[in-house]
């Protein structure tokens, strides 16, 4: 199962979906130019192919183990992690005042796709560390920044995110972990967290946990949650490692996929309490955690793209080797010559490319929200980022599962057999629509919080832009584009109508009806946006060597996937009634 870094595809989408050229023209930072971006991608691609990709299969087969609180990661992982840190990859996106390279998010996102395509279970650890670095860099105390952030940014120590408890998943307001103030600026934490990725391992000398917990006087619900920094090993004032803290991995989850990633039960305060310090303000922990989670949501979307890419590469190879049936010219043809297999392979490529384009566009908004020319430009990008984040997370992870499933189908029965590896992609992909906020929760966020942003003006501005792309595609007047402009035009119209209808439901206080249509709305938005971004790619590349492929992918997406738009519109507008009217007996267990 070889893996080839998808550099040409990334360059095309960086140029067209992320608008890299105008980002560079606007100034992304000193020394950041096309040459640097190309060489970073080349180097990352080489590392992904040579060092990380070989970890993927043994990681799945061997998995992780727990022995008296000590977690062993799969063979080769600690060495690969050391090499990855030594090469400077851990700090690629971290702030420069903490030793990071502060590269633009569009590049960080592209590189992250390469890591995750090579080995998702390995790369997941960095997603969490990166988020923890960002949260601490933004709202940590000076002391927390001094002692922890640079070490985490370099990868010397890793970070975790401890939200989930057995009775508190999507509803974090239910969490019970307690934090008791000690009167000296520290707190003692007591409680159990479950499903904690990279909660324990021995690849680094320390692990820094960001933990949500309640203070004794905390109000009920999410308004009573605070965030704490709890190191595995306490850290002395001079930065040296002190004594072992009272936090321990007491279980490793047995799970469907990502076997190489340790998913831990973490127990805080078995003895006298795990020592922690407050991050941000008391009772405002959820806001702090959202700094971490928003970036992580994009990263998880990227994981969906990555799995889809890996599954597609594997299916393409198999379809060219496997001989079955007749084609027009051969008695025994490779299955790639059959129309239905071509349908699957083109769908895999175009769905993956659309999800990639959406993720890179989202990364662009992060860059503009941080590096834009003035306050107004940064604020506008911040609003667009808020709108795009749930779309990037949910659509790209749904695509990850769908494409991995198609990858098995292309393989036939062989795909169902574990040694082939197609099954691993499917198993690994299945967590992505669940963690970092389930895709149902993302869709509700899109409809109830993002659609009404600025009185609906953010969505309206997007619709205008998408309409412009449709006009551009039509103006090209290239017969190779087929019905691309027509189909995308219909999708934009359907999205516009559905947005208006949902906005009206929200204003009328019919939240249930709006929420019933949330998942189809997110899909409708994604198909329309993804289709338009692919069209942009086709327009830009049409006179280049990459043109035929870019056009074929965009055309197939518009004519075979964006065509679902009108049906999704109808589901949103008329489907809610039957759902809400369904008798309670239909849902009785
Ligand atoms: C492999 C793995 C790694 C993980 N890593 C981490 C980690 O590092 N740190 C961490 O803190 N957590 C982690 N998690 C936990 C993960 O984030 C949660 O599983 C996820 O947020 C969902 O919570 P839940 O499992 O309790 O599901 P529930 O919240 O019980 O949801 C069950 C179903 O109900 C739906 N639902 C729930 N509430 C609503 C609502 N209000 N409206 C509509 N639908 C709703 C959900 O969409 C879902 O379909 C991990 C989980 C796994 C499996």
Structure description:
The chain is of the alpha+beta class and 589 residues long. It is 57% helix and 11% strand. It contains 20 helices and twelve strands. The chain has helices at 7-16, 20-26, 34-52, 56-62, 77-86, 105-118, 120-139, 142-153, 285-321, 339-371, 375-411, 413-416, 422-429, 439-450, 457-476, 484-507, 511-516, 518-541, 547-560, 565-581, and strands spanning 65-67, 70-72, 158-162, 178-181, 187-197, 207-214, 225-231, 233-235, 241-244, 247-252, 263-268, 274-279. The strands form three sheets. Strands 3, 4, 5, 6, 7, 10, 11 and 12 form an eight-stranded mixed beta sheet that branches. Helix 10 runs antiparallel to helix 11 (375-411), helix 11 (375-411) packs across helix 18 (518-541) and helix 16 (484-507) packs antiparallel against helix 18 (518-541). The longest helix has 37 residues, at 285-321. It is globular, with a radius of gyration of 24 Å. The two termini are 44 Å apart. The model has no long low-confidence stretch (mean pLDDT 96). Flavin-adenine dinucleotide binds next to strand 3, strand 5 and helix 14.
Gist of the model:
The chain has 589 residues and is an alpha+beta fold. The chain is built from 20 helices and 12 strands.
Any chance you could write out the topology, listing elements then pairs?
Elements: H1 7-16, H2 20-26, H3 34-52, H4 56-62, E1 65-67, E2 70-72, H5 77-86, H6 105-118, H7 120-139, H8 142-153, E3 158-162, E4 178-181, E5 187-197, E6 207-214, E7 225-231, E8 233-235, E9 241-244, E10 247-252, E11 263-268, E12 274-279, H9 285-321, H10 339-371, H11 375-411, H12 413-416, H13 422-429, H14 439-450, H15 457-476, H16 484-507, H17 511-516, H18 518-541, H19 547-560, H20 565-581
Parallel strand pairs: 3-6
Antiparallel strand pairs: 1-2, 4-5, 5-11, 5-12, 6-7, 7-12, 8-9, 10-11
The structure holds flavin-adenine dinucleotide.
